[in-house]
Amino acid sequence: MSFSTLMDFVGNTPLVKLQRMVNPHTNSVVLAKLEGNNPAGSVKDRPAINMIKQAELRGEIKPGDTLIEATSGNTGIALAMASALMGYKMKLIMPNHMSMERKASMAAYGAELIEVSQEEGMEGARDLALQMQQQGQGIVLDQFSNPDNPLAHYHSTGPEIWRDTDGKVTHFVSAMGTTGTIMGTSMFLKEQNPAVQIVGVQPDDTASIPGIRRWPKEYMPKIYEATRVDRIIDMSQNLAEQTMRELATAEGIFGGVSSGGALAAALQIANEVENAVIVTIVCDRGDRYLSTGVYNPAG
């Protein structure tokens, strides 16, 4: 008798139709892909598993090795889970203002957490990861430059969306952090139908939305190719958080702040076009943010 392992349940997440938040006067459909249903709770489970697996196949790492990664949260949690599952030690570097739930989740999987200041941010975390690798403390997978990050989505997220929409998807909307999700999914969907519109969401100049960034030019992820994105929408902090809360109260979907930003952009598009099938990524679960107060702003 053959039994499944945890790795078998990464991907094939639900794609659900929103029922109450979409303008009733539009004939467009908005579908949310619930990536919080992955084992470690986010879309980052896909590249975490793939980056380790492919590095193993190339002979670059082996079980028992120490891995190092800079993260704002979700990739770190996913890598901590994957490392526990696949037999690696994990050192994670993140800005110290990230939520308590994220830090506790990483520790629960056995990862060592190293914090940098909020001022140093993700740029500082990335620099420290490379410095630690140079000092021989471990191997950096580097989600920002590693092609196995977008390829995880090319081989899973994109095909799942195409399959579950019967090839009718017209728009794909994703918040942009490392840009792995939008790069890999765009690559696959554009191969199937070049007319599919790929829309990226980034914080506006005043927003600080966990997991997504407006990168300085020198820190732009190397996996990012601007030609794969048809449109970029700047998102305000207030609208992202407001939409996130409404997603929970109106649709029963408990997502994080970047998911609220992506959905706000998807709803904007639904009001601009007709007969569209718009897919947006709900990249993680809202319980990862409860201690920040975003779900109870008046409390």
From TrEMBL:
Superkingdom of the source species: Bacteria
Keyword Transferase annotated: yes
Domain Tryptophan synthase beta chain-like PALP: 8-284
Cofactor or coenzyme needed: pyridoxal 5'-phosphate
InterPro entries on file: Cys_synth, Cys_Synth/Cystath_Beta-Synth, CysM, P-phosphate_BS, TrpB-like_PALP, TrpB-like_PALP_sf
Chain positions recorded as pyridoxal 5'-phosphate binding sites: N74, G177, T178, T179, G180, T181, S258
The reaction(s) this protein catalyses: O-acetyl-L-serine + hydrogen sulfide = L-cysteine + acetate
Sorted UniProt keywords: Amino-acid biosynthesis, Cysteine biosynthesis, Pyridoxal phosphate, Transferase
GO molecular function: cysteine synthase activity
Gene Ontology biological-process annotations: cysteine biosynthetic process from serine
Cross-referenced SUPFAM superfamilies: Tryptophan synthase beta subunit-like PLP-dependent enzymes (SSF53686)
Family statement drawn from the similarity comment of this UniProt entry: Belongs to the cysteine synthase/cystathionine beta-synthase family.
NCBIfam families referenced in this protein's UniProt entry, alphabetically: cysKM, cysM, PRK11761.1
Name of the featured protein: Cysteine synthase
Taxonomic source organism: Thiomicrorhabdus sediminis
